[in-house]
Amino acid sequence: MNNGFRIDTDINRSLTLKQTKQAALNALQEYDIDWSSIYFIQVSEHVTFRIESGEVEKFLLRIHPESKSREETVSELEWLAALRRKGLIVPEVVLNREGAFVTDTATSGGQRYYATLLRWIEGERLDKRVLTDESIRKIGALMANLHEASVDFRPNNGFARPSWGSQSFQRDWEHLQRHHRHFISDEAIELYTMAAAKVASHLDTLEPNEQNYGMIHADLHNGNVVFHDDEPFAIDFGRCGFGYHLYDMAQSIMGLRPSQRELFIEGYERVRKMDDYAIQILECFFIMSIIEAYSFHAENALEIEGLIEEQPYAQAILRAYMNGEPFMFQPLDEVSFS
Length: 338
What we know:
Layout lengths: L9 H19 L8 E7 L3 E7 L3 E9 L4 H16 L7 E2 L8 E4 L5 E8 L13 H18 L12 E2 L1 H14 L9 H15 L9 E4 L8 E4 L2 E4 L6 E4 H9 L4 H11 L9 H20 L6 H19 L16
Parallel strand pairs: 7-11
Antiparallel strand pairs: 1-2, 2-3, 3-6, 4-6, 5-6, 8-11, 9-10
Helix pairs in contact: 3-7, 4-5, 4-8, 5-8, 5-9, 6-8, 8-9
């Protein structure tokens, strides 16, 4: 899916990085920080840089494409401020010299962007292979605490964040249908079509309330959690929006091993108990998340090889879902590939 940056080829990616670094340097002139170093991190919904000021202070500078909604970016920062008022440790926005969240910036070639600056959350990302059982439980509890803190969140007029549900899924599914041939055969897409229909039907039966729906992170995978003094903290809220809590959970556990998914849920239930029928709904959101992920990467030539390699397992998961068989907590060798 188009994220606003041209990164579909090595040449376009190189040009984008050159332009956004220049935009970052220009943006930094609008902040009262005495910075000494700048390091590129990654391209996602925005291009990110780590900014260092002396030996102590660090910041996260985000460069956003001009096409992305400023209202949504400001609303993200407003939600972070609300979470901080609840006592959660999440990124804190740094205002520019004009006292604004957002800073206009551009390159010498006229390419326009805007920037936001956040205080750095200190910590280390841990690969899922080295996460301890207790670390995974703590990530589950972290998600539950985010949900608890958002139960009584009342957005101001003009608050604008995306909603993750039936409509967003329909958009992603239509996009995948147009671009699936890069890594999904015409024969295999039939299985995706049946699974997508089942997901859409299930979504239509859900009823949101303040206990199961609200503002969510929507992207709390391992790469967006850092550990400091053995405690996890959430970072990168760029995809946050309104959605079901179980959808938030599905986005997180999708990248974990089956046994680790159970530990995540154990940790979550230390803070918030799940309903008896939650696993069935979680399976629906799990399939929704798989389709969304493939839709997002479908046009990125650099991702195609990996997407092709994943298909045997992905299609086994889809078959299990269609057959009503358990799959989220099953080891790979127990998921049928036939």
